[in-house]
Design brief:
Spore Coat Polysaccharide Biosynthesis Protein SpsA, Chain A, Trefoil (Acidic Fibroblast Growth Factor, subunit A), eight-stranded antiparallel β-barrel, 458 residues
Length: 458
């Protein structure tokens, strides 16, 4: 890394060294690597372009040759590299060459690891919130500054000294790569933890064309009425290209696909609980699931901020039901489990729910789908008249404390074509009991809500 906070790269077309901001690195920019730490003992550093990944230690050399290690490697000073009595210099215009007879700021560099480079790239490109005071840190408030410093809101920290260690960044307790938390050190020791804020909405879509018409309406409401700024994951059997043809005028660059083959009742009932297995799921939080008969009725980004600060799974309560008497809420399971007292607990609907983060809730999601599989194997596919809902009621109530109060006040629903919950937007509308007219009912609602929003005073 240069004194400017840029990365020294090699241009394969011209053979020249250059330096680029991390956010502007492209496929043609090959970050230059430094020989392993033994080079500091010999006084010799070998530079070479990284062709396979962004930055790893290597002992290979190429046409760039060797530089003499010329000064101390303290993070506040940086190291200088010298060849043929000329110091390597990062020029303001973006070029890097051995040309200067004396070492000043532009001739100072620090060596950062692949993990540190990956961290800086990801940290600068996303929003976060500080755990100590629940304040948001937006991506535009994070920047590398001259002098090997990282600006984090109103604070600064030294690079790489204040960054997470290579062993800690992105590693969950099970060893999996994660990006949900960043722990930084200010003033050399003052610790701050930041939680990732990169929302993901996930939906499930299998079946006939009408299903994808509802998917289109659901996502239209999310992006247009909800002014949603995050990404969407569609779980199903369509490719991204196929979805593009079915979802006109939607931002397909923000819509991703998780292909799951569905041939059995278990596949359909459990699909929504497999979102955590998507290869990029660890790059997001918080999460919202929506059935395709649900729509958004007002801006949702403040809602996602509230989800981020929440610590429990949240579902919409069906306050007129009880777990031990209502079949859709799981009464068949509850009554046959002597270890569960649920006489006063309401059931909930699994058509809309929130997950603040995969840690610690990923285990619960896995237990739900395992319980669905075992119950279907023992009792058959017709035993679950309301799909996953009885199982998720049973498992979460028994193993994972949930919050009814968070989501329930934010959802209206239709029952026998009547809107329950008032006329004012709350966040979501769940269209129950509209039968074959459901798609038309959703379409009319979205158009009417959009018209009212357009006519409302600014």
């Amino acid at each position: 890394m240069t004194w400017f906070g840029t990365i020294v790269c090699h241009n394969p077309r011209t053979g020249q060294l250059l330096h680029r901001p991390i956010k502007e690195l492209c496929d043609d920019d090959l970050p230059v690597l430094v020989e392993d730490s033994d080079a500091f003992d010999t006084g010799l550093l070998v530079l070479r372009p990284a062709r396979q990944c962004r930055a790893v230690r290597t002992t290979a050399s190429d046409e760039h040759g060797s530089f003499v290690y010329a000064s101390g490697a303290h993070p506040k000073v940086g190291l200088s590299l010298k060849r043929d009595d000329k110091f390597l210099s990062a020029r303001p215009g973006g070029s890097t060459m051995a040309m200067m007879p004396a070492a000043k700021a532009w001739e100072a560099f620090v060596v950062i690891s692949k993990a540190e480079l990956d961290f800086l790239d990801f940290f600068q490109g996303n929003d976060w919130w500080r755990r100590s005071d629940n304040t948001f840190l937006r991506a535009h408030e994070i920047a590398l500054l001259p002098g090997f410093k990282l600006k984090v809101g109103s604070d600064e920290l030294p690079v790489p000294r204040g960054l997470p260690s290579a062993r800690e960044w992105g590693r969950g307790p099970d060893g999996d790569i994660r990006r949900s938390e960043a722990v930084l050190f200010f003033d050399g020791w003052r610790i701050e933890a930041f939680q990732l804020f990169r929302p993901l909405v996930f939906v499930v879509a299998y079946g006939p064309d009408e299903i994808f018409e509802r998917l289109h309406l659901c996502l239209r409401s999310l992006f247009e009425l909800g002014r949603y700024e995050g990404d969407v994951l569609v779980i199903g059997d369509k490719s991204h290209r196929e979805l593009s043809a079915l979802l006109p005028r939607l931002p397909m660059d923000r819509i991703h696909v998780q292909n799951l083959r569905a041939v059995s009742s278990f596949d359909y009932y459990s699909a929504r609980y497999y979102f955590s297995d998507w290869e990029s799921a660890h790059l997001y939080q918080p999460f919202l699931y929506m059935d395709l008969d649900a729509a958004v009725d007002c801006p949702v980004m403040p809602f996602f901020e509230a989800v981020a600060f929440h610590d429990k799974l949240s579902f919409q309560a069906e306050t007129w039901t009880r777990l031990d008497t209502h079949i859709p809420a799981g009464s068949a399971l509850v009554r046959n489990d002597p270890g569960l007292e649920a006489h006063d607990l309401p059931g909930f609907n699994s058509g809309i729910f929130t997950v603040p983060s995969l840690t610690p809730h990923e285990g619960t999601l896995r237990k739900i789908r395992e319980a669905i599989r075992r119950y279907l194997e023992q009792h058959g596919p017709k035993s679950l008249s309301h799909f996953d809902q009885p199982i998720v009621n049973y498992v979460t109530v028994k193993l994972a404390p949930i919050d009814y109060a968070f989501l329930t006040p934010r959802v209206r629903y239709t029952q026998n074509a009547v809107m329950v919950g008032g006329d004012e937007p709350l966040g979501f509308v769940h269209f129950w009991g509209n039968g074959p007219e459901l798609t038309d009912v959703m379409a009319r609602f979205i158009e009417e809500t959009a018209r009212k929003a357009a006519d409302a005073p600014a």
